[in-house]
Amino acid sequence: MAALGLLFLPSPALSQLPPSPPPSGAEAAICGVVRMAGSGTPVQGVAVRVEGQNRWIFSGAEGRFCLRGLEPGVLRLVPERIGIVGATLEVEVGPGITAEVELVVSERALELPALVVSAREGTRSSGPGSRSTIDRSAVEHLQASSLSDLLQLLPGQVAGNPSLASAQQSLLRQVPTTAEAARANALGTSLVMDGTPISNNANLQTDVTILNSGAGALPPFSSVAGRGVDLRSVSPDEIESLEVIRGIPSARHGDLTTGLILVQTRVGARRPELRLRANPTLLDLGVAAGWGDGIRESGWSATGTLTGAQDDPRQTLDNFYRGGMQLAWRSRRGLEGRPEATVRFHGWSTLDERRRDPDDTRN
Prior knowledge:
The chain is 7% helix and 38% strand. It is mainly β.
């Protein structure tokens, strides 16, 4: 009688298979309830997290929670939620055992780091009124040709194309109004440059020879008589900062009824600058330089501008020219007992002309 024997050898592929997971009875579980300290009321929405294992769960409506499928051993439960604080609870759970625990938490007020807020009185303006400030970076970004262009950055202002063809007036509150009200608005706006008011009260540039003209009629040429300052006379290249106050800020600023424009010109040492702006209607050249420290000790600065504008290329005899210069010196020692001083020599000239056509033979 022959015997048949079979020999089974494990293949390499079978020997590398991972071990089978332990039966479900070897896993541990923790169930319990989250209660508030003192009152013992259940707390809902508390995240119960197991340290060392990527397992967590939120407590239910009755404060109940149950974590299953945990690795047996000593487990640390951490309750977490905004507005409460609870101690970490250590629980030893064996395989196939469900432990029942109780987590006690207490309320905690939400605390933020201390914040110190300090304020100081404004150095250039005081009193009531809505204020807006425009710094040098905004002036350079806008590439303005006059002070009127900078006022377009104010809230509620109507934006328009830069133009030097006609007199530019300030209208701080641009609401639908009449021409007479707009003139009164501009007349009631005070322009102060480096602490010195720029007044237009002595402007007598009027023309009373207009035939059949009514009272208050404007002359046939560009004039700001009886109105505010012509904003074309101020070059943006000379402006360091601009503060606009709408309303009546304080009696110390003089006679004004609508608002105040505070202009601070550039002074102190800085790198030499050469700016050239050109478009079909404008050619603007600005040169500026400064020497010395100009911040803590002393410094000189000089600025020169020259502008020519022709709004309509067909009207070659209708032009606007502006020239300005400023020489400034500042001493700011910054030491106790040392005075601070700033001296400026500023001047400008404008010419808004409409020359007679040489081909016009009329008298």
